[in-house]
Amino acid sequence: MNLDEVIAQRRSVREYRGDKEVTKEQVRELIKSAQQAPSWKNSQTGRYYAIFNKDKMMEVRAQLVEQNQIVTKDVNAVIVSTFVKNRSGFNREGQAENELGNGWGCYDLGLQNAFLILKATDLGIDSIILGLRDAKGLRRVLNIPDTEEVVSVIALGYKKEIEILAPKRKELDSILTVYE
Length: 180
Prior knowledge:
This protein has helices at residues 3-9, 24-34, 54-61, 66-71, 103-122, 135-142, 172-175; strands at residues 46-51, 77-84, 126-130, 148-157. By secondary structure, it is α+β, with helices and mostly antiparallel strands. The protein has a single domain (3-175), classed as NADH Oxidase (3-Layer(aba) Sandwich), CATH 3.40.109.10. The protein has a four-stranded antiparallel beta sheet, with helices on both faces.
């Protein structure tokens, strides 16, 4: 599949089959792709916690809002994504290099997560990035250090045999300003 096809096919899936599982090897491949994303001064602050264990999955799911608990009920793999605070966007003395500060860590992680879900689509794996979660609860359940900012939970699986239509996108001229 070429990149344009991958981009066109990627969807946020909210209903998964429970009879087909994502493997640890596939998740490792997704994370390797995520590592290829650019980051501020090559700081590579993204961190990933992959959950396959059923008991741990229940603990993680309990940290999601109810609608996201429903979305993740039939997946066997989720990834919690974080970034190391105060590195991306900061100089060696620990001072923010512009007004965004840790916003750069979140930006860099977003790029990594985009690479991750595009690679998942390329491999035939469906996904959704979930932001409605209890960060403190996830930190406790997964023993995530305070030096990392918890950002999202990415559900991975295989969609139920339903058609998911592409959402309407804004007109290009409404989001693009060109100076000639």
